[in-house]
């Protein structure tokens, strides 16, 4: 279900996973680099903060020590209506 919702919303994610409780979203193209003097990790934190202001809470890749800024973890082991609403909020955030 999460894969289908992300596809419909046009949100880029890692498609090769086959286990776990989350999907890795690649939001690197949405990092606000000009607002943080090109610091990619700071831009990831800024995007996370702005998402949180819109009630979308996701852990950044930095928290999990991913090598590339812009990766966020979307937990999908949620009630279906919660998952649908969360992905809709991401889409409405203009990702």
Order of helices and strands: HEHEEH
Give the DSSP E fraction (strand runs of 2 or more residues): 5-15%
Rounded mean pLDDT score: 89
Q: Structural class given helices, strands, pairing?
A: alpha+beta
The biggest sheet, with number of strands, parallel, antiparallel or mixed sense and barrel status, is:
3 strands, antiparallel
Measured as a percent range, the helix fraction is 25-40%
The Rg value, from CA coordinates, equals: 13 Å
Apparent shape: globular
Number of helices: 3
Uncertain segments: none
Numbering strands along the chain, what is their spatial order in the largest sheet? Answer: 1-3-2
What does this structure look like?
With 95 residues, this protein is an alpha+beta fold. Helix content is 37%, strand content 13%. It has three helices and three strands. It has a three-stranded antiparallel sheet with strand order 1-3-2, with helices on one face. The radius of gyration is 13 Å and the shape is globular. The two termini are 19 Å apart. The mean pLDDT is 89.
Structure summary:
With 95 residues, this protein is α+β, with helices and mostly antiparallel strands. The chain has helices spanning 2-9, 40-53, 80-92; strands at residues 22-26, 59-60, 71-75.
